[in-house]
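Sample A.
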Amino acid sequence: MLLCVDVGNTNTVLALFEGDDLKQSWRTRTDPNATADELGLTFRALLDGHGLDLTGIALSSTVPQQTAEVERMAQRYYPHAHFVAIAPGVKTGVRLSIDNPKEAGPDRIANTHAAYHLYGGPCITVDFGTSTNIDVISEHGDFLGGAFAPGVEISIDALAARAANLLKIPLLKPRSVIGKNTVECLQSGMVYGTAGQVDGLVRRITEELVTEPTAVVATGGLAPMVIEQCDTVTHYEPNLTLHGLRMIFARNI
């Protein structure tokens, strides 16, 4: 069994793979101050009955302090499991065609690898998380760069913090684009506004590509709320990062 761990700024997603098959997944809140022992207790509780034959752990982490703690946890609690973290020196199969390759987050590298091998290239990934990340993959599988925008929840929090009469709202699809009350107006702006932003960026990116993208792949925890309103998204793969981790792990054993 292979355990893939994607540590994001807001959530940590874990998935248990047997070969290419995803058997079980979990989503927890990311605590940047969690120690190796705290992580070990959490992982053992989740894996109870599933991971007794754990042979490998693959990690993608955008939270630097958690990268080291997860590795310590793996060494202490799963000493016989082969550990691979996406970092400089690891064979990812992804050429980073950007100004500073060190700036490419491990989740973006994993998404690139998975999207190219699942859908071909050129293609575009849209990761709806803490930020909305749009990444571009060439026809040869190279990471070309992309665009960042504030995520849906960040935008809601910012409005609630800066506007005295606007409260934080539940992220739900409103009954129409024209909101009939304050909550629906905010929901419309968040859902349809984010969809319009994504469509606009994807269309501009497509204009810069020599070849039409084979796919525009959505992923991330907030994707289900928005992608139905996106005209440019062609595929939804909720576990894109985890599949990328699985594939990269296989290249390093």
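Sample B, a different protein:
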Amino acid sequence: MKKLLIIGGSGFVGANLAAMAKTDWQVTVTSHTASVITIDSVQVVSMDITDRQQVFDVIENIRPDAVIHTAAISSLDACIEDRDRADRINTVATADIAAAAKSVGVKMVFTSTDLVYAGNRSFYAETDDAKPSCYYGQTKLAAEQAIVDSGVDYAIARLALVYGRKLGPQNSGVEALLANLAAGKSFAQFSTEYRTPVYVEDLCAVLVEMASNPALSGIYNVGSPQRVSRYEFAQILARTFGYPEELIKPGQVIAANFKDHRPEDCSMNTDKLKTALGRSLSDITEGLIKIKRNRHAI
């Protein structure tokens, strides 16, 4: 079996990715400070991605056929509160991983974000200028450029909001919403923040395909074909799972106390990915129905 190295195995995407990829790959995941979910046949190695020598040593020792880098500080507030740490983890470490992957001649797949776009209009395409309005988006755009400059064989996935089931003890965003709905609690969701949410299993399938298919190179928007606000997403969730939609109230981003700017509309055009794959990813109802079918695993 080919060997796949997943950097960031303790994260939501990384854990789901490992669980999916282990069928066809010999999978190794890295972790540093967080616990990693035990997955049969998946190996775990400790690695501090801010230690350049350690990054080179791990990739040299494993000699994977592909590297998928999912580790990051993704909290907008955390990035703006400690810019140096965000730079080290999100940008500098990514540059080191790209250099290490190039040194052993393997492809690197990188999970970026829809927040590299300015966020003031709908359905951004990959050819549109990336002008992030939050510091997290700036660190990820700088990481993208570092990958391009490194000369490594790469694919960059600009991810929309990712939803799906957990593989660890902490609830995912969907599960937290479902817990409130099941308890009959009323809560607010932003009605003025629009994204193109992607089902985590769809995303993982795309990342694995990027790792294995030489034709999938460059930058791709990865999201569903459906643009919704967080409020609309929660309404679809309630409807799909049979809970009262009235429990969900519309909220305004401007009324929330955030430390950095939250873009209002980073919805993405995913035609390039659809053409490359020959298929669309699940719309939100389809993705949520898949979660409902696997409810026993939540």
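Observation for Sample B: Residues 171-196+226-297 form a domain with the UDP-galactose 4-epimerase; domain 1 fold (CATH 3.90.25.10).
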